[in-house]
Each structure stands twice: as structure tokens, then as C-alpha cells.
Amino acid sequence: MKLLFKKVIKRATIFRIREIIEGYHSLAVFEGRYYVTLKDGRIAGCVSLVERGWYMTEIKHLFVKEEYRASGVGRFLLEEALKKVFTPLVCCTVRSDNKRSADLFLKNSFDIMGTFQNSMTDREIFLMVRNLQQKE
């Protein structure tokens, strides 16, 4: 099965992505460029990139539908998204109890730069950053 990575353009796809994300994060703020991964013509996951300035891009809403988890879709999404980043730094936030996501970012050279409490959900959050100019 081949995975495809596509920029979201169709209005219907945008609404479907919004439904998927709101299903796990009802307070989500939608911004940036959204990309989807298709597996057998169906949405398997999505990711958004938001340029915060000349120096940093934020990865938001990296999400893999449950039936595609643990199959490499998350890794594929992250690797393809990183190819679209042209700033020296890239960051994301991950709930500390989301071990699968935190491990994915750690395995891809992100560092936990700090933790904080999300005041809306009272959950602990990791701020993760990767310097794309650093040699691995």
C-alpha cells in the first residue's frame, strides 16, 4: 500500500479534516497549511504547518486515524512535513501523556525544551523543538 502526501485544497477535505481533529480536540485552532496522507484513497492522517516567523515553523494537528496507527503513517507524515519546512527551527506541543507522539518526535531529533500546564485542559504539555540546521 502506497502512502500519498497531499496539500489540502478541496473544501470537502478541509471539512473532513476539521471533523477528525475536533473529534479528539474540541478546542483546536485551525491555521496554517494542512496536508493529508491517503492510504488506498482514504484519509489516514493529517498535519498542519504554521510559519511563526522567519526562524520557526510550528507543526500542529499531527493526527493518525485509529485504524492506521502503529503502521508508519505518523512517521511518514512527520518526515514529509519536515521536507516542507524552510525555517531553521521547527516546534510542536505534545501532551505529556501522549507517549506515542512524544516518542515519534524524540526519534526524529526533537528535544523537550520545557513543560507547562494547558490552562484550558489542565494537562501537562511538552514544548518540543528541532534545529534543522544542526547536523544529526
From TrEMBL:
<dbReference type="InterPro" id="IPR000182">
    <property type="entry name" value="GNAT_dom"/>
</dbReference>
<dbReference type="GO" id="GO:0016747">
    <property type="term" value="F:acyltransferase activity, transferring groups other than amino-acyl groups"/>
</dbReference>
<dbReference type="Pfam" id="PF00583">
    <property type="entry name" value="Acetyltransf_1"/>
</dbReference>
<feature type="domain" description="N-acetyltransferase">
    <location>
        <begin position="1"/>
        <end position="133"/>
    </location>
</feature>
<protein>
    <submittedName>
        <fullName>Acetyltransferase (GNAT) family</fullName>
    </submittedName>
</protein>
<dbReference type="InterPro" id="IPR016181">
    <property type="entry name" value="Acyl_CoA_acyltransferase"/>
</dbReference>
